[in-house]
Amino acid sequence: MNTLAANAHGDDMSTQPQYYVREHHPENGTLLGFWIYLMSDCLIFACLFAAYAVLGRNYAGGPTGAEVFQLPVVALNTAILLVSSITYGFAMLEMQRDRLRATMIWLAITGLLGACFIYLELSEFAHLVAEGNGPQRSGFLTSFFSLVGTHGLHVTFGIVWLVTLLFQLGRHGLTEANQRRLMCLSMFWHFLDVVWIGVFTFVYLMGVLP
Predict the structure, then answer these.
(1) Does residue 19 sit within a domain?
(2) Are 28 and 183 in contact (CB under 8 A)?
(3) Judging by DSSP bridges, how do beta strands 18-21 and 2-5 pair with one another?
(4) Torsions phi, psi for 170 (to 5 deg)
(5) Sign of the CA dihedral 173, 178, 182, 188?
(6) Domain presence at residue 8
(7) What are 111-143's pLDDT values in tens digits?
(8) Which DSSP helix (H) or strand (E) runs through 163?
(9) Contact 84, 117 (CB under 8 A)
(10) DSSP code per residue over 14-72
């Protein structure tokens, strides 16, 4: 919002209007922009899912999904990520109650769960590569590493963002700007959960079918 003020110190300036900025941030502007970003991310993952749909059965004489996927480990990883979404929800509830310490505790738990998810995913990748089943082995493995790896990079970025927010909360508290950032990260984190459900169903569960 702009307000008009006149300068009372001089005849030359008194006839010239001057504008001072009181509020420079449009209401809900950040959330709208972040929704647009999430839609662009949807397009990226849609392309990766489409690539996997085309190449997912192109084994080139290499292993199939049933031979390389360890469903119990992947199921555990899925549960960890879903629980992290619940703990982030608790953090948002505490934020609405203006409880800084509780908010930070739930965010820290969410970050730890995200780190466990990344650790298990990297362990899976390392195991595949050690057995000679890297992304260059076949079209199936190329599309698999591309889709799952891109999701993992997003989770890693989300953890870095979360840690940054923890420092900002510790220094500035639950300001309006920090609450807005927490809302954006909340949408991002839940979005990654939805994408992972698609990965778990489309890649892992359907991948073990004959």
Answers:
(1) no
(2) no
(3) antiparallel
(4) -65, -30
(5) negative
(6) no
(7) 999 999 999 999 999 999 999 999 999 999 999
(8) helix 139-172
(9) yes
(10) HTS-EEEES--S-TTHHHHHHHHHHHHHHHHHHHHHHHHHHHTT--TTS--HHHH--HH
Q: Say whether pLDDT at 10 is over 80.
A: no
Q: How many domains does the chain have?
A: 1
Residue 20 lies in a domain: no
Helices (H) and strands (E) in the chain, counts: 8, 2
Percent of the chain with pLDDT over 90: 81
Contacts of residue 154, defined as CB under 8 A and 6 or more positions apart, other chains included, come to 41, 188, 192, 195
Which backbone phi and psi does 61 adopt, to 5 degrees?
80, 5
| Continuous segment of H or E residues that includes residue 3 | strand 2-5
pTM, rounded to two decimals = 0.84
Residue 155 burial (CB count, 10 A): 22
Domain region containing 115: 27-207
- Position 16 confidence tier, pLDDT thresholds 50, 70, 90: low
- Whether 153 and 125 have beta carbons less than 8 Å apart is answered as no
The CATH number assigned to the domain holding 177 equals 1.20.120.80
Q: Nearest CA to 71 among 124, 125, 33, 144?
A: 124
Check residue 204 and give left, alpha or beta (phi > 0: left; psi -120 to 50: alpha).
alpha
Q: Is 143 inside any structural domain?
A: yes
